[in-house]
Structures are given as structure tokens and as C-alpha cells.
Amino acid sequence: MNEQTVLIIDDEAEIIKLISLYLQSEKVRLRTASSGEEALAIIEREPVDLVVLDIMMPGASGIEICLAIRERRQMPIIFLSAKSEEIDKIHGLSVGADDYVTKPFSPLELVARIKSQLRRYAALRPAEPGAAAQPSTVLRHDGIALDTMTREVTVEDEEIRLTPREFGILELLLRHPGRVYSMEQLYELVWQEPFYESANTVMVHIRKLREKIEADPRQPRYIKTVWGVGYKLEKLGR
User: Model confidence over 5-49: pLDDT tens digits?
Assistant: First the structure.
């Protein structure tokens, strides 16, 4: 596997230095940026596998930078923020982040989260140019088409942009239509982490996914809620 690239976006030099120090022993290539403009320029000119992004940035906020990145790429984004309220975390995840770490943070925990995200992204990302051709796997279900190799998703032939977590949830449900997954099962299978207290995280991602693939998210055609149990992809013919 080629060396993966981690981009750290923070206007505090000490934070960048600290994270870089703890990532030195990992097999990753580091890139750093102190502004959104600098970060987007890096993303445009070279591949980036994961972004660590401070929310409280001068000029364009981390939220704005995250939205701009999502228009271009679908690599994992981990927010760093001193904002620790539940509503702040929900908002950060809803705009496209895949994880949210509050300051002050444990460098070892952050590195563990980075490695976890990189493992999943490496497993799901498309093959690199020049690699041996692999048969493409497209999952189809009632107007939805999800290509597990190119990570392209269409609904009624319209391209839909999903975050890595949204993609993971939809892929899991497409592989097992009609099967009901609890929030704990969804989190542990898609996030590849112990569940603990992550119900809100799952609900936020389900809501955002519905907003992208459903004509009417309030009356979903595809992702159904099984009250008191979890979620399922509605089977065809019902």
C-alpha cells in the first residue's frame, strides 16, 4: 500500500507541531495548512487521504472549509474544536465531517482515530491508476446504484455526493435489503468502533443520507425506521 497523506489544517502552529510529533512514527505523509485557501490548494494539486480540521479558523471557518472540501473530495474529515456541546458535534457531523474531537484532546486518541479512518478509507477507495484492473461491483436497488469501486452513487440516474460514513451506511443496507440494523450494529459495522453512546451520531447520518437520496425525507421510500429496533432498506415489491 502506498503511503497515505494526512492534511492538518489549523492556524495554531503548536497544535500542528503536536499532532505532527505523534504521527511521526506512523507510515503517513504529512501536509499542513494554516488557512482554508492554502488547504484547498493542496487538495487540488495532490491526493489527500484524511483531513484534520480546526473549526475555529481565521477567515473561512472550518465549517466552510469542510463544505468546500466536500464539493471536491470524499476523504475522511476529523474536526478539532473547543466547542464541546452536543449541538456543536451534531452540526459538525451534519455538514460532512466523519469524526469530531474536542479540545483539549489526547494526542494518542486522535492518532488512533486517524488510523481507524485511514484503514477504512484505504479499504473502500478506488484502485489507483496503473493497478491491475478489478471487476467493478455495482449494487442496485429500486433506482439506486452504488459502485463500490468508484464510490459513485446515483438515484434515478442523478449523481449523489455522499460522505464516507453515509456511503458506508448505504452500502451496508444495499447489501442486505429488508434486514433491520440497530443503531449499535450500524455504528460498529460502519465506524468500526465500539458503540458506547453514539446513537445521535447514527441518527444524524441517517437523516443526512435521507435528505440526499429520498424525494421526501419525511416519508422515506428507501430507508425505513423500524421503531424501537433500528433501520432497514425497504425490500422491492412492497
Answer: 999 999 999 999 999 999 988 888 999 999 989 999 999 888 899
- The pLDDT tens digits of the residues spanning 123-166 come to 766 544 444 444 446 899 989 999 887 788 999 999 999 999 99
CA 107 to chain centre: 21
Q: Are 160 and 208 contacting, i.e. CB atoms less than 8 angstroms apart?
A: no
pTM of the entire predicted model? 0.58
User: 89: closest CA among 78, 76, 100, 98?
Assistant: 100
DSSP codes, the chain: -PPEEEEEE-S-HHHHHHHHHHHTTSSEEEEEESSHHHHHHHHHHS--SEEEEESS-SSS-HHHHHHHHHTT----EEEEES--SHHHHHHHHHTT-SEEEESS--HHHHHHHHHHHHHHHHHHSPPPTTSPP----EEEETTEEEETTT--EEETTEEE---HHHHHHHHHHHHSTT--B-HHHHHHHHT-S--SS-HHHHHHHHHHHHHHH-SSTTS-SSEEEETTTEEEEPPTT-
Residue 133, Cβ neighbours under 10 Å: how many?
Answer: 6
